[in-house]
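Reader question, answered in our methods column.
A reader sent in the components of a multi-part assembly and asked whether the whole thing could be modeled at once rather than chain by chain. We filled in our standard form and ran it. Here is what they sent:
COMPLEX SIZE: two components
ENTRIES:
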Amino acid sequence: MADGISVLRSPLILGNKTATQVTEDVCGLLDRGPGREWWYALAVSATMLTMGVVAVVYQLLTGIGTWGLNNTVGWAFDITNFVFWIGIGHAGTLISAILFLFRQRWRTSVNRSAEAMTIFAVICAGIFPIIHMGRPWLAFWVIPYPNFRGPLWINFRSPLVWDMFAIGTYFTISLVFWFVGLVPDFATLRDRAVSKFRKSVYGFLSLGWDGSNRTWLRYETVYLLLAGLATPLVVSVHTIVSWDFATSVIPGWHTTIFPPYFVAGAVFSGFAMVLTLMIIARRVLHFEEYITLHHIESMSKIIIATGGIVAMAYMTELFVAFYSGNEFERFAFVNRMLGPYGWAYWIMVGCNIVTPQLLWFRRIRRNIALVFVLSILINIGMWFERFVIITISLSRDYLPASWDFYTPSLVEVATLIGSFGLFLTLFLLFIRFLPMIAIGEVKGVLSYGRKKSDDAAPPGTAHTIRVTVGSPGGPQ
Amino acid sequence: MSKRLFIAYFENEEDILGVTRAARESGYDIRDVFSPYAVHGLDKAMGLRPSRLPWICLGFALLGAAAKLWFQIWTSAFDWPVNVGGKPMASIPAFVPVTFEISVLFAGLGTVAAFFLISRLRPGKKPAIRLDRATNDRYVLILVENDAGFDASAAAALCKEFRCVHFEERLEDEQ
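And here is the structure of the entire assembly that came back:
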């Protein structure tokens, strides 16, 4: 096997897999059903989800007075969670679109599950602004439709309206992108399905895909176009989220650095979440040969890069606060570091600036347990970043008389836990019912880093049964 | 009159590329090539022209942008003008973000819809041709035996040169 491997490029998929093995490895998981760990995980996540549902129902029946908000701090836990979840989603689009445009072929092992994460994270994010409305049954009022109130239209100059359009578009395009990528894999599942039920379900979803290269050519074109569309889209989404803050006049919010700062932070946190989930999934589902150390290292490197941008943004914010000579801006940052919420600021700095620096070391990047711990720390740090920006800035603005302190209520904490429950439940259902690895795309990179062999298939593999029905050759 | 099809199965990416190129050069009528993944270079080997979907994408993007920009100006400046912070009624810069989002939305949905339409993919459709393991690990070349001069044994010999593992002839109706 050693001489079948290129010196310059190491294979992306280990174990010298053939196409059939890939099909069996990925689809076999769906046949066998999940192991015991899956059921444990589902029990935990469903419990968390139930807690969230109870909390949301309670706060809808009672009103959002059940939250810890006060006159001064009108945005806190819920908007923090909203920005956090939207950010988690961004890694999925980065992997599926931006790394595709940069021809990073290692993305094929992780793109399907990262895209799924995007969709689930956007669902979680969307819940928070809707329940924040207080009367979510009127949520459709944010959509411009001919109504009996005039018709009075929505204000298209408001960043909150932009946000609704950005997130709506992001969700729709991510879902379509994901589905288009799934179609060839549904066809693979259909063709190997034994039970009639599976055949019909996968047959329905596969849209009659047959692997024709006329279709593949168009498919590749569509994939490229969607990647080209999703790339500016993902940048626009978090840019617009940051405008929710940057267009207001609160010290600590009103800065032009917000869009790039938020986008980098989103990718940073998203990759941490991808790492967290992939490290568990590869172990529990035995995908070590597909999601290799190389993948974990590559994602760690992206974390270093985006973490660097985030650190740079923190420093720039501080510098500008002091250099601007603006008293309120200066106070906002001193208050962040030394005020009553100072601990949150230092958790943020510790997790987001210090933690990623450890990933510079190859030995740490290749230590899966350590990377797992670091990825969780980054997730925590990025949640606190949003908390620091949103809550601390609001709690002490221009007028000391209106300063106030915010403490989350149990209902809010339960809602946050519930959103994690929703995310994990959806993800667990995804790995149970859909191919978690993009079968068609992985087959395309099997030969990567391997010497082109003259043999039809690597010898000694049991699956190369040559079924010869016709008479090969005919008259010769 | 149903056509006869010559169907050859291969196990290797290089072989399908080679045989497709050779078949085209020898003047065979290639109906299609089937593969479990997008084999790069196969479009050139088959002599397919690049897809025109990018133009459809551009068209939808422009349509979405124009429609949304018009809608925002119409609602904000004509149908029910509201003075917001003393800004002009048709404050175009503030309309850019939503215009961009809708443009992307139209382009994405339009392109995918066009792709499904052109490739005749729709929910519940049965595959047009039944091929063994073409979505798993086999590459399949289908030639049309379009005239009396088609020599199946010559085609078979060509395919065997590229390590064809199996071939068969079918009437098009059988599918």
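What stands out: The CA atoms of residues 186 and 337 of chain A lie 52 Å apart. Confidence is low (pLDDT under 50) at residues 453-476 of chain A.
Send us your own complexes using the same form.
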